[in-house]
Design a protein that fits this description.
375 residues, 18 helices
Length: 375
């Protein structure tokens, strides 16, 4: 057992008085006014700024956990359409529960590589001590562990320092998992089924929403699911062609965008997809039109074949000549068909969010075409 152990025990003298925790005004009109004031405040977190409706809903979620309205907007976040609570706030909710006695967190086999285990013990009054463990082996089995110092850029332009939390803070992430499981097991009444934000961020969108996502940010999960679909499809009725794996569609869409953006403007690309091929995104290009689409993508814009077979003259687009720095979100932008102006506006709006949060927001927009960016 590691010496780096933390034990927290409730002091009877610190028990809260028997008075209700203030959360929201009783009247709906007053509550909405308060939410609007907070949303417009400079102290409001950026993901809730100028969104009084989101402030109100977050406060109602927090109310079920016994959080004040300000604790709610700081401690609750929406990941792929599901609300979650940050790990430290989850612990605070449990520690305020009258049945909480103590909890203890420590690591076993610290410094021994894959043998490292995070352990969280929690004691509920009148019950035995409950223990949850999460090891490096568990993280690897779940596809979470990441010990790469550098990772390739998505646009193929070299590599970059790995910013993933599971690389930068592996022990902390292990403990968040052990803590989340332990607290949810023994204090489900206090947490109302809420999971930690850190846990929700690790799940692909399809495992949370119950439907498959068109996001380019979960390729490995997509390949695994597609392999399962192909396997089950091959055992069905003879003569029925198995569904094409989504990974193949994504690979073609990525290749098509890589070629097309060199020779065409974003506006021309959207127009070609809609007017010539009759699809909304490159992921929807049918098999029998992919060769034609790739030929168009590789043809210079000033002499590219039109739908009637004749060459069209294209004017040079100043925006096309501008050198744009690649970003980790280019594949998602390509799927959405956003031009450089819209991309820059979106990134400016989301500049204070983490990469994981931006990707989650782009996942949501891809899954919900009617949704606006950053909402």
């Amino acid at each position: 057992m590691s010496s780096s152990a933390l034990t927290v025990q409730r002091d009877a003298a610190m028990e809260p008085a028997n008075k209700p925790i203030w959360v929201m005004p009783a009247g709906l009109e007053e509550a909405l006014k308060l939410a609007d004031i907070i949303a417009k405040s400079t102290l409001c977190p950026n993901n809730y700024k100028n969104k009084s409706g989101d402030v109100f809903v977050a406060a109602k979620f927090g109310e079920a956990l016994g959080l004040s309205i300000m604790q709610s907007i700081v401690g609750i976040a929406v990941i792929n359409g599901r609300p979650g609570i940050y790990g430290d706030d989850m612990l605070a909710v449990v520690q305020s529960h009258p049945a909480y006695e103590w909890h203890r967190e420590f690591w076993e086999n610290d410094g021994k590589g894959d043998a490292l285990v995070a352990v969280c013990q929690v004691k509920r009054r009148g019950q035995e001590v409950h223990e949850s463990r999460f090891s490096v082996a568990d993280a690897k089995r779940a596809g979470l562990w990441d010990d790469r110092a550098r990772i390739p850029r998505r646009d193929g332009g070299g590599d970059m320092a790995n910013p993933a939390p599971w690389h930068c803070y592996p022990k902390r992430m292990l403990m968040f998992r052990a803590r989340g499981f332990a607290l949810r097991d023994k204090f489900a009444d206090a947490l109302r089924g809420m999971r930690t934000v850190e846990e929700l961020q690790d799940y692909p969108p399809q495992t949370i929403e119950g439907s498959f996502s068109g996001s380019p940010f979960a390729e490995e999960d997509r390949q695994q699911q597609s392999a399962g679909e192909s396997s089950s499809g091959s055992s069905g009725e003879q003569g029925t062609e198995p569904a094409e794996p989504e990974s193949v569609k994504q690979e073609f869409a990525s290749s098509w965008h890589s070629e097309a953006k060199v020779n065409h403007t974003a506006k021309d690309m959207r127009s070609y997809l809609k007017d010539t091929l009759g699809v909304a995104t490159s992921l929807e290009i049918p098999k029998d039109k992919r060769e034609q689409a790739m030929t168009w993508a590789k043809t210079k814009g000033d002499a590219q074949p039109a739908a009637n077979g004749k060459a069209e003259e294209k004017k040079a687009d100043p925006q096309q000549a501008t050198q744009v720095q690649p970003t980790p979100y280019d594949q998602a932008f390509d799927v959405l068909g956003w031009d450089q102006t819209k991309r820059q506006d979106y990134l400016k709006k989301m500049e204070k969010f983490s990469e994981a949060q931006i990707k989650a927001d782009l996942n949501r927009i891809i899954d919900e075409p009617s949704a606006g960016p950053g909402k």
